[in-house]
Structure formats: C-alpha cells, structure tokens
Amino acid sequence: MKPHLLLYIVLLINVGLIPAQIFDVETIEFSGDDSKRINLVILSEGYQTSELSQFITDATNFTNSMFNQSPLKEYANYFNVYAIKVPSVESGADHPGTSIEPLESSISPTVPIRTVDTYFNATYDAFGKHRLLYYEIDGNSANNTEAIINTVLANNFPTYDQALILVNSSEYGGSGGKFPMTYSGFWGANVAVHELGHSLFNLKDEYYPGDDLAGEAINMTQETDQNLIKWKNWLNTNGIGIYQYTCDTGNCADWYKPHQNCIMELIDKPFCSVCKEGIIEKIHSLVSPIDSYTPISNTVSTSSFPINFNLNLIKPIPNTLESSWSLNAANFASNVDDISILETDLNVGINTLTVVITDNTTLLKVTNHETIHLYTVTWTINHSSLGVNDIESDINNLSITMFPNPANTIANLKIESEKDAQLKVDITSLDGKKVKTVSLSNYATQQVDISNLSEGIYMANFYANNVLVASKKLIKQ
C-alpha cells in the first residue's frame, strides 16, 4: 500500500514556511482511484503563461510516447498522469556555458550563453556537464529549489508518487534524482523514460556513471558467476549476458551490466529484459492489481442463494493476471473474476473463501525468480441452517522470497505479509511426497536445512492460514 498520508505529512513539515501557491492541474491520463494507482505528476518549467497550453500538448505527447514503450505499455492501467501548470517569467532554461566537457555538436549544438527567469531555476551545464539539465547549477544551490518543488507538490498534488519536470527547451538535456528533468525536444520523452528508470524504478546507467554513482542494483553488479548473478534467469535470452563496463578512468572494469543495447545506456533503444522485469516488480510492490471486490464486510446477510463474489482487477495489456479460488482450502475455480456459491458448497459454521492473484507475464521469469508478489482476498462466511449470518472480507498483499536457487545445504525462505497470518512452507518431491514442513515468521528470513535431501527438483508450497498461495520450484544440488 502506498504511504500517501505519511508523504503528505512530511511535505507539510518541510514546506510549512514557504508561501502556498495554487496552480491549475490537468488530467493527462486517468486509469482509476489515485490511492490505487501510481500517480505521475509533470511540472512545467520555462513555460510562460501564454505557453501553458503548449505545455499540456507537450505533456500529453510525452505521456503517449512513454506509455508506448514496454513494459510501461503493458502496465499503463496502473498509472495516472497529471500536469501542474507552473508559469515562468521567461521561457527556456539557463545556459551558463560553464561545462568542463567537450561539446557534442551532433547532439548539443552551440547555444548562446543566457540566463532566464524560470520557476525552478532549470540550467544546463549542471555539475560541469553540458547536457545535465537540472534545477540549479549544483547540489548545494538545489536545496532551496527542491523546497520550492516540494511546496508546489504539497499544495497542488500531495499524493503524487513521482514528479517529472518538463523544461521548455529544444536543446538535448535531462537529469535523474528525486525530481527528474527532461527537455521538450525530439528525444525528450526517451530521456524522461530513462530518467524515470533511475528515479522511480531504481535502475542504474548502463554506460559507466562514475565511481560515485556505481553500485549494486537491478542492472549493475560486480558479480560474474553466472550461477549467482542477479539476472541469471535471463542469461543467453534476448541478448542478456554479463558485460563489462568500459571507460578510460575510474573503477568501471569492476562492474558489469546485463545488455549492450538498453535505454539505460542508449537513449534510442528499448528497455532490456532485466530492466523490464525490475520495472514490473516495482509496479507490483507499489500497487495491488485488486482495484475492488464484492461483497465487502457486513454487506451480505441473507438466506438466498447463490451468493456472488466478484473481483475488479487492474489488468495489464494484454491481461496476464491469473486467479486461483479456494473454498475451505479446496480448489474451487481458476482464472475467473466472478464466482457463485451455492448453499450446498458451504459447511455449517465458518467457511473460508480465498482468491489469490498472480501475474504470469512472460516479462517476468517467475518460476526461478528470487521474489514473487501475490495478492489475496479472503471472505469468512458464517453459515447456519437459517442461511448466511454474515460475511467478513479481508485483503492482503504478500511477497515470497527464496534463495539461493539452486541450493546445496541451506535454502533461505521469507514471506512478507501485510496482515497477520499463519505462514508455513511444505517442501515436496515431484511425486507429491512431503519431505519437510517449516513454519515461517512474517518478515523474517528462515534458513532451511536441505542437506539431507537427494539432488533433484522439489516444490516449495507456501501457505497463509492453510491456503496455498504460491508454489516455487526448488533445485537441490
């Protein structure tokens, strides 16, 4: 669940001394309830009041372009996009001419040195790099401007998840960080996607970013063992390998990336498979695919059957969500959004109906991936000879982690559940024989000794409150 309330409180504390300014907010793309979507907010920079209609056109074109790129294209229904029309006194961005880099004339032609009066103080040549378009010239100067950005967001759209600043300029430039920036010219939408890769999805550059920005990440590592590398499930597929960074200085030879033609390196390329998977997993961690469901608690008290249960899901395009329904721990239905319960389906007393939602997209290597996300709705049905006395419902988000895989002596297992639940895992052989049962504590990694098991393939079946919620293949070496 997204921490909107906490975010709003923090923003109010941080910007309490800055005068409030209210600007027009326009909806660019609306998929559903803000509390159940990732809210991307685009701020105008260097657009005068007379140019704000052009800003909306630019923001709309940017949105269309961004959500035409995989995997954002497949998961567009998980996003809302809004634009805040912040007017500047003058158009464009500063060009102080202080870059210490040689000018790349094919991308960034010579421009006149100029200073313009804009709301967020956008400038090229930030941190001595010509194409680095940033709010202020360096990190120290940016502190006050960042407070201004926070104020605009707190006063106009406090429940944002990610803000992007769109600068009215035809000169190539952009930056990542807390509030990524991009220019409005030809490659601007691609720059925005690249920078959002950093800011929202925790991806690293796949050109060497420098020793100060190098670090272990979804798509960057110092590991070279193909059995241990974090993208091992993708090796030798779709061009994924273990590629050494190249450069003339620094420690780039110590670092490796998964691909040689990813947008995190080359702005005119798509995301590689490893980055796509990382983006989807971040989406799953922020937003549940369960938009709503019925019945909710205390809305049904009837002796009339059948009783209908319904899911309203946020579906990828094309839909890759799968559902598994169980009644009193027995399989009931699969891959449907609606079911009906007859009186003959129920026991006298308390009955439990659970549906588990998972995403079976081929953009994830779920079978062998270290962590999977799943989402459940559970209805507790109190049934007597007079009918259904009441129905209570509860929703839960879970993630399940198992590593290493393959394993030799120890397998590490972990379940993270938003709600209290009785958690366990059964390890079974392929012929269905249960060889080990382990109770799990929420949010705690449990080391499971598998040294006495024969080499081969096993299934790890994870249960929450005695309901099977996931099965993962475990390879014993």
UniProtKB/TrEMBL annotation:
The keyword Transcription does not apply. Residues 402-475 form the Secretion system C-terminal sorting domain. InterPro entries: MetalloPept_cat_dom_sf (IPR024079), Peptidase_M64_IgA (IPR019026), Secre_tail (IPR026444). GO terms for molecular function: metallopeptidase activity. Signal peptide: none annotated. Pfam families: Peptidase_M64 (PF09471), Por_Secre_tail (PF18962). Keywords: Signal. It comes from the Bacteria. This is T9SS type A sorting domain-containing protein.
